[in-house]
Structure formats: structure tokens, C-alpha cells
Amino acid sequence: MMEQLTNRAFGLGKKKMETLKRTLALIFILCGFTSCIEFYHPDLENTEPKYVVDGEITDQEGYQTVTLSMTSDIDVAKFVTLPHCTVKITDNLGNIFNLAEVLPGIYKVWMGKEYLVPGRSYQVNIKTPSGIEIVSDFDQMNECPSIDSVYYQRNDLSSSSSGGTKVQSIQFYLNFKQNEKSNNYYRWRVVETWEHHSVYPITWYSGGKLSYTPANYSKFTCWTTSELKDIFTFSSKSNSQLNVNRLPIQLVDNQNQKLTYGYSALVNQCSLSESAYNYWNQLRINSDELDGVFSSQPIHVKGNLRSTSNPELDILGFFSASSIKTKRIFVQNVKDFNTYQPNCINPRLPTPLDKDFNGYMMEIEGRKYIIEDACVECDYMDGTTVKPSFWPW
User: In CA terms, which of 60, 91, 326, 351 is 20 to 30 Å from 187?
Assistant: First the structure.
């Protein structure tokens, strides 16, 4: 979310912005200098750093988190933390919860179930070391219905990068039933976990002249867990039906190892207030629009935060309160699906320059060949060799 808010604070990324400018200029000429295109010129001169607040309180007992940062320069996007602040959460009953800074810019407080009650409203109050005071509107926590089912269906797509050939994919959907306490506004956060393998086990390590017989498979199997950056929102306000069926969420293709050995998605269904829904839905629209050449002008997304000490400051982000229901799905061996198998750099014979080589090797017909670390260590780029407790295989 920090990356999305930073991008929206400063407009488009430099490379994409220049591409868009050139494309629109060409279209403008071809249109005969008519008004068929409305140009978007992001204001790159007024790029003073802005405060960013990312916070959500849920009905799940445990640590509640607020993250504070500053927007970064457009040419060097990075997470600029805002440490040493005083942060507290209050509810509409007058209860006050003081947050502790556990890492620079990350503040947490443990809250028991008795304080996390649908129907109550919550607010965050922040004071920075420089004396800037920031407060959010009260956001009401609404009851969230349970997810009935999460399932998938084949949804192969044409890929322009592969000459229009089909890319095999599966599309996930969910069903749920609203109840009388439902408030019609929802957002979904999806956390995915997948198993992936290296190409070779460890057979030789040159630095210590170590030979592994039998082969060492300690770094052969890994699991990676990641929360999707995609924004999924839905409003049933104009829908009189209580049953919501076949609502699309993420799509997963076969261009990596996600579906090769085993995949799991944990779907978090969050109830939202109307103002929180409007905020997240506008972020979703901006994200979708920026994916196309013929994008409309990005919406300025206004959150529910303001500075009481400096009213002219533009505070980015949103502090929300949500009740959550979750459901997990496991996927393995999709029918008639070509799973991804990684290519690995071909092993090479050592040269005189490799006399002090420290790294992995493999033996083929009595000769030792150098292989890249990424071919042997499944956690070279990401992941862990520790199997998740919920993993069924």
C-alpha cells in the first residue's frame, strides 16, 4: 500500500510517464489536432514530502498496527519511515490504546476481543517529533458475513508478449451470503502461499571441497508467502439479493512455479464503512486505469486523515475499522494444465580464473561443473525451507 500511495502522491513513474506522453502526442497528431484526447500533466514541481498513514483495526484479537511514513522522491521510490511519534487509538466509548514503536515507523498495540466489537467506531491520533498533529475521522466497524466458498475455473488468456498464444490460467471466485447486519461494502485481501523447488540438489561445494553422498536436498523445497497488491472491492448497495455469487478475485497463470507443486490462497473478507469503501475503490480504479495506454486522469484519492495543527497539510492514507472472515483454498494438479519448470543456466567447466571458486558444483561423467546458486538454493530469491503448519502435502 505504501508504494501505491507514494505513486499517487507524485503521479506516474518517470519511465511510464514519458512513454505515455509520447504515445498521447502521436495520437493527438493523428486526430488532426482535435480535442479527442484530454491530456494529463502531473504536477512534478510541487513534490513536497507528504505524511502517509496506513492503519487498520480489526475484530481479530491481537496486535493492531499503524504504519507512518513520508512520500519519497519520484526518481528514487523508497519507504521513508516516520519514527519517534506518539500514536494512540481511541474508540467511541472513550477507551484509549497507546501504541509502541516496534520498528522505525511501525507502531503496535495488543487489544483484547472485548475491545474489538462490531458497531463501535475507532480513531487514530498521531503526534510527530516536530509537533505535527494528525487525526482520523471515527470509522465504524461493521459486521462481516462468512465466506461460503472459494473456488477456481480455467481462464486462459491471450498474451501479446507471446504472439497472441494462450497463457494457461485459473481464475478464483468466491460466494458469500449477506445478512441483516451486513452494510453492503467489502474489500478482500488475499495472501498466497506456494511450494517451489530448486533445479538441482547439493552434490558438491567447492570452497570446502565438500562432497554430498547421497545428494543434499536441504535447499531443494521452499514455500513463499506473499500478500497480493491487487485491490478487490465490491458494493452490494444497489443489489437487493442477499446471495453474492461468482465474485472474481485473483487470477494465477503458469508463468512461474505457483501452480507447479502446490498453491494456497487465504482470502480475508473485510467489511467496510461507506467512506472506507470509497477510498479503496478509488485506489482500485486508479490502479486499473494506470495499466492502460488510454488511461483516464487519476482520481485524487482523499482519505479520512487531517492535520489539526497544520490544516493545509495533505495527509495521505486511511485509518479503518473492519471485521474479518477468512477462508483458505488449496490447489494442486489442475487438470490439463501445463505447469512451469524453470530453466537453469547450463553448468560450465571451471577455468583457471576459477581456482579460488567458492560455490556449488555438480559431477557429470566424472567431471565437475560449476552451477549457479539459484539452481541449488530454492530460497535464493525468496521463500523458506520451513514448511507452513497449514500445508497439507
Answer: 91
Task: Note the pLDDT tens digit of each residue in 64-113.
Answer: 999 999 998 776 778 899 999 999 999 999 999 999 999 999 999 999 99
Measure the CA dihedral 359/362/365/367, to 10°: 0
Q: What's the pLDDT band for 373 if we cut at 50, 70, 90?
A: very high
Burial 320-332 (b: 16+ CB within 10 A, else e): bbbbbbbbebebe
> Do residues 72 and 198 share a domain?
no
Which residue has cell 509537533? 131
Residue 58 grid cell? 480489526
Number of domains in the chain: 2
Cis omega (within 30 of 0) on the bond before 347? Answer: no
Could you tell me the residue range of the domain that residue 241 belongs to?
147-265+333-375
Does residue 220 form part of some domain? yes
Q: Are 147 and 269 within 8 A, CB to CB? A: yes
pLDDT at 298 over 70: no
pTM, two decimal places? 0.81
Are both 355 and 223 inside the same structural domain? yes
Instruction: Check whether residue 173 and residue 191 sit in a common domain.
Output: yes
